[in-house]
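Dear colleague,

Thank you for sharing your sequence with our group. We've completed the structure prediction you requested, and as agreed, I am returning the results in plain text so they can be pasted directly into your records. Please verify that the sequence below matches your submission; if there's any discrepancy, let me know and we will rerun it promptly.
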Amino acid sequence: MRRMANSTGNTLFSCLLAAFSCISFAKATSAQSTATAEPPAAEQKLEATEVETKTAAKSEAASEPEKATTDKPSKPKLPEFMRVAEKDGKPQALQTAVAKYHLADSDSAEPIEVTLIGAVHIGEATYYSRLNQLFRQYDSLLFEMVMDPEMGMPDPNEESRGLSPVSTIQVGMKTALNLAFQLDEINYKAKNFVHADMTPQEFFDCMEKRKEGVMSMFFRSLGASLAQQSSGQANDIEVLSAMVSGNPIALRRSFAQQMEMADGQMAALTGKDGKSVLITERNAAAFEVLRSELDDGKKKIGVFYGAGHLKDMHERLLKDFDMELVEIDWLDAWNLQ
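Please find the predicted C-alpha cells below.
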C-alpha cells in the first residue's frame, strides 16, 4: 500500500512535469472545458541570467554511441536538453538547452540553421527576459501553444485564462515556487513569432482518435512509477516534504531533481506505438510548420518548445531534415541556491 501511495504521488508529479515542460494552453473555451477527451494536466532571482556555454560539440560527440554489450549496434545516446547544474555537489540551477543545428555536409558560408530552444513554463523572470532577447535574432521563431491563431494571443492579465486546467496548475505552481509564468513574460506579439502547434479542436480530436485521456495516462504513469519505486529512482517523500515545508527553494530542488529523471515518466505517457498526442503528434504538427518556413526561404529558425519535446525533435531533425547538432548552450531557468 505504501508503494502504491508513493507511486500515485509520483504519477501526480508526472502530470506536473508535463505542465512544467511539455504543454502550454491558451484560454479554454466552454466547449473545451467540457470535452470528454480533456487534455492531461501534464509541465530568489538569478544574479545574472546569461547563457552558460559549457557544451559546444559536433554531433558526433553529442551523440556518441554507448559501448555495445551485444552483437547488435547500440543506439546513439541522445543529448540532454534539461539538467541540474551543480558546484561542489550542490545544485546551483535548473538549466534548459539552446541546441543549434546545421544542414549536414553544408559548405555554405551562411548555412541553414535551426535552433531548438527548450523551455520550462514557469521560471525566473530574468530567464524569460534573456529568451526574449535571444528570439530577436531569428527570421522565424516557431512557438508552442495549443490555441486557435485566428482568436489571437490570450491576454496575460485576463483572469479567466485560468479556465484552462493546465494553466491553472501552472499558475498555482508559480506561486508555490516563487517564480514567473511564461505566458506573462514572453512577448508573443513579436513580428517573427509563428504559431507551430495544434488548435484545441485538433488536440482533442487527436486524443479521441488515439483513445488517449487523463485516466489512460494516469494508469500508464502509475505503472512507470511502480517500476521507478522498485529501482529506487523515485523519491516522492522528498517532494512531498518540500511541498509542506513552505520553502520555495527546497521545493524547486526537489522538482528539479525529479525532472532530471523525466525520460521514464514521459515515456509512460506514450502508447504502444511509441507515440502520444502530448509529445510526438504535436511535434509532427510543429515540424510541418518548420518545413513550410524552410520552403519559404528562411535561413535562421528558432523552435521554442517545452524541454520535454526536444529529444523527439532532435531525432526528427537528424532523420527527416538531414541536419547535425553543432553546439548546445545552457540557460539558467531556476535558481536553486
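Summary note from our side: Residues 2-21 form the longest helix (20 residues).

Kind regards,
the structure core
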